[in-house]
Every structure is written in structure tokens, then in C-alpha cells.
Amino acid sequence: MISWGGQILTDAILATKGLTKAFRGFMAVQGVDLNIAQDSIHALIGPNGAGKTTCFNLLTKFLQPSGGIIHFAGQDITGLTPASVARLGMIRSFQISAVFSHLTALENVRIALQRARGGSFDFWRSDRVLRQYDDAALALLADVGLSDASEIQAGELSYGRKRALEIATTLALDPRMMLLDEPTAGMTEPDVVRIVELIRRIRKGRTILMVEHNLSVVAGLCDRITVLTRGKILAEGDYATVSAHPEVITAYLGTDHA
């Protein structure tokens, strides 16, 4: 439970109050109040320049807010570093796929699993020692549909499969909350369909917040959608609610939004 000034607001795992970010007088995010429910899929969407990525970077502490408060799992994280927030279990992906292209898919996931050994990633250890992580890594690859790619170098995978691999490495960190930044950006339509199905498949028992520009991607996938425009919340609710909102149609979808 998260409270502001002693008043219980929600059972959200992540919440903001008055979240604001100014860049030399330009208000990129203006007084945003978010409540992300535990075990839900929640999307931040909006047109280009709406403040989605800035808001995402504020939540994960890659930017410090100009004002407002951020709570995660009952703790005020407003002043924490990205590494501190990650240690609390809030793990993000990035819009540009971040995998080790010269390593195999299996090795990429294994590196993430090696976090269990603490500060050492055991790069100098024998291959035999590192193989203890293989079963768990293979299971994660199977979860994201990459069972056939375990011995393929990540750099040789298609863009969509690289994004699936990135989700596998994120899952390997055993996050309390996953934050996916534009998970379908730059993908072909078949890859978009596969990533949407993947997110739907891995959602059980997890909280997912995703930044997305495409409303059709989050339709039927997300429990709640927050629409941003000019750094402010324009509308919030399920897909039926936000897609029918007159201001959303005007600012985001245009007149032909069927």
C-alpha cells in the first residue's frame, strides 16, 4: 500500500505524485500522477513528444525529477540511483536492443543469471562452473520462443528475436516489475504480433509497465492505459475508454481511428 501524507491511495506497486521534469524552462513532464497496480500490464502511450520516454526515465531514475515523489513497493525512491532502483527489483529494457552481439543467446541469458553470485560475474571461471546456469537459461529462452537459438550469436538474430532475447535477460534478473521501453519499435508486423504474444505469455505473476506509441499494440494486452500529451495525462483507463476519448482521438489517433 502507498500513502501520501498518511492517506492510503492505492495498492499500487509503483506510484507518482506531481511528477515533473523541466529542461531549461521547457516542461517535459507536468504534474503526472500514476498508479501502477500490482500484477497488471500498464501502458504509457502518446504521440511523439508527449513525454513518455522522459517519464519512463524519471521512474527508473535515469533522470532526476524537478518535482514530485516516486514510490516503489512502499518505498520513496525519488532520490535513488538507477542501480539502487534495479536492486529493489525494478528492471527496465531499452528502446534500442541491448544484447552482447558477440555472445550466443544462451551466454547472454547466463550473464544475467550470474547476478545470483553477487558482485562477481565469474568471467574468469571455467566453463564447467558457468554451465550450472544453463538449465535455467535454456528454460528462459524457451519462455520467449528462442529454444532454437541458444547457440546462435545474438548479433545474427533478427531484430524481433533480439528484443525477445532482451526480455529473456530481463526475466533472468527476477524483477518485481518489468519496464519495457517501446518493445515493438521498428519491428515488422509479424514481429510485433510475436512480441505482443510474448508479453501476454510472461505476464502471469508479474507487473509490466510499457512505453508504447502504438495504441493497437496495447489493445487487448494492457489492463490500463495512460495517454500523455505535452507532458500531461490526457486520459486514462482501459482500451475502450481511451480509444473513445474525444481529446485522444484529436491529439493522438486522428479522425479515422477505427
Question: What labels describe this entry?
Answer:
single chain, 258 residues, 2 domains, 6-stranded mixed beta sheet, globular
Write the layout of secondary structure elements.
Blueprint: E1 2-4, E2 7-10, E3 12-23, E4 26-32, E5 35-37, E6 41-45, H1 52-59, E7 67-72, E8 75-76, H2 82-87, E9 90-92, H3 105-113, H4 127-130, H5 134-143, H6 159-172, E10 177-181, H7 189-202, E11 207-212, H8 215-218, E12 224-229, E13 232-237, H9 239-243, H10 246-253
Parallel strand pairs: 6-11, 6-12, 9-10, 10-11
Antiparallel strand pairs: 1-2, 3-4, 3-5, 3-7, 7-8, 12-13
CA-based shape: globular
Give the termini distance in whole angstroms. 38 Å
What is the domain total for the residues? Answer: 2
Low-pLDDT ranges? none
Short description, anyone?
With 258 residues, this protein is an alpha/beta fold. It has ten helices and 13 strands.
Write structural notes for this entry.
The protein has two domains: 1-89 and 175-258, P-loop containing nucleotide triphosphate hydrolases (Rossmann fold); 100-173, no CATH class. The protein contains ten helices and 13 strands. It has helices at residues 52-59, 82-87, 105-113, 127-130, 134-143, 159-172, 189-202, 215-218, 239-243, 246-253; strands spanning 2-4, 7-10, 12-23, 26-32, 35-37, 41-45, 67-72, 75-76, 90-92, 177-181, 207-212, 224-229, 232-237. The strands form three sheets. It has a six-stranded mixed β-sheet with strand order 9-10-11-6-12-13, sandwiched between helices. Strand 12 (224-229) and strand 13 (232-237) form a beta hairpin. Helix 5 crosses helix 6 (159-172) and helix 6 (159-172) runs parallel beside helix 7. It is globular. The N and C termini lie far apart (38 Å).
